[in-house]
TrEMBL record:
Keyword terms: Cytoplasm
Record GO cellular component, one term: cytoplasm
Cellular localization per UniProt: Cytoplasm
Record family assignment: Belongs to the universal stress protein A family.
Gene source species: Thermosynechococcus vestitus (strain NIES-2133 / IAM M-273 / BP-1)
Major localization class: cytoplasm
Keyword Cytoplasm applies: yes
Keyword Cytoplasm in annotation: yes
Gene3D superfamilies with a match to the protein in the record: HUPs
Pfam families listed in its UniProt record: Usp (PF00582)
SUPFAM superfamilies tied to this protein: Adenine nucleotide alpha hydrolases-like
Protein name: Universal stress protein
CDD domains the record matches: USP-like
Domain UspA: 1-158
């Protein structure tokens, strides 16, 4: 039934649940998996570019250069953390007999997931749902809602467990 499963993961507890759910499905259906992690400005670990522009007077040029170096280092660490997570999850899936690839994208998570699902010809997308409502959903957006309404294939949302 499902041969190509696209799995949207992050480094949260919900991301682990999403991965495990997708891995179980991939094993059951003998499917391939593609893992995607999107570096999005709405992520809490996204490097903060505040104070990265020099003052108009140019008085603090040295400080500006130091801030830019620090931001570049933050960005590199943020990007590397995502790649390390993807490599680790790929290794776990591969060891369980599931052919797995990964990619990391930058930008709007919903669009990136839908675009990759179409390009890779996914049969199923598995992603998490944080359960945002009201103003939180309005201001932060809902990746799962976007994907549910724009994906070309089936979508499985994994609800965040509440204690």
């Amino acid at each position: 039934m499902y041969k190509k499963i696209l799995v949207a993961v992050d480094d949260s507890e919900l991301g682990e649940q999403v991965f495990q759910t997708a891995l179980d499905l991939a094993q059951h259906y003998q499917a391939r998996m593609m893992l995607i992690h999107v570096l999005s400005p709405t992520h809490e670990s996204y490097p903060d570019p505040i104070f990265t522009t020099p003052l108009a007077s140019g008085v603090y040029v040295g400080l500006h250069e130091e801030v830019m170096r620090a931001y570049a280092e933050q960005w590199e660490n943020f990007e590397q953390k995502g790649l390390d997570m993807l490599r680790n999850l790929t290794q776990i899936a591969t060891e369980k007999g599931v052919p797995t690839e990964f990619t990391q994208a930058l930008g709007d998570a919903g669009r990136a997931i839908c675009d990759l699902a179409k390009d890779w010809e996914s049969d199923l997308i598995v992603l998490g749902r944080r359960g945002l409502k009201g103003l939180s959903e309005f201001f932060l957006g809902s990746v799962s809602n976007y994907v549910l309404h724009n994906a070309h294939c089936c979508v499985l949302t994994v609800q965040r467990r509440r204690d």
